[in-house]
From TrEMBL:
It comes from the Bacteria. InterPro entries: AMP-dep_synth/lig_dom. Transmembrane segments: none annotated. SUPFAM superfamilies: Acetyl-CoA synthetase-like. GO terms for biological process: amino acid activation for nonribosomal peptide biosynthetic process; secondary metabolite biosynthetic process. Pfam families: AMP-binding (PF00501). This is AMP-binding protein.
Amino acid sequence: MNTELCLHQLFARQAAHQPDAPAVRDDKEELSYRQLEERSSRLAALLTREIGSGPARIGLHLRRGNAVVVAILAVLKAGCAYVPLDPTYPAERVQYMADDAAVDLVLTDADGAAAAPAGHRVLTIDSALWTEETAALVEVPRWQRSHPPTSSTPPAPAARPRASRSHTAM
């Protein structure tokens, strides 16, 4: 095993080696390595477009399940760090954690959007982001599939996927 590679790069290798093997499963669905790689690359492209290049802290305000694995891989591919924000914690605790970590963006789903920490940019993932129709809207740069971003991040595509963002004041 090459210890020079990051987690998301090792995962991409495994996805290329066994694309149709089951990778993760929750109570809603099972994802193959290929599906997990495609979803995380799509979300990484969206995150890169939202926050630009450079390091950032992304709060993951997501219920336990496949979406968390997709989000972690996407954050790493985007060259960022993730901050877990468990939506089952009391709202005051989640708010404190997001503020204390100085998150640049909170990634959540439709169920968690209303309870996302105030005062932070919020990106709500819509399940339509994973459909084939939406795949064409989110161009996944080739470098993101197996390499971390560099300072020469390619320009973002003009089309927007089906995700919503909000800016809230404290």
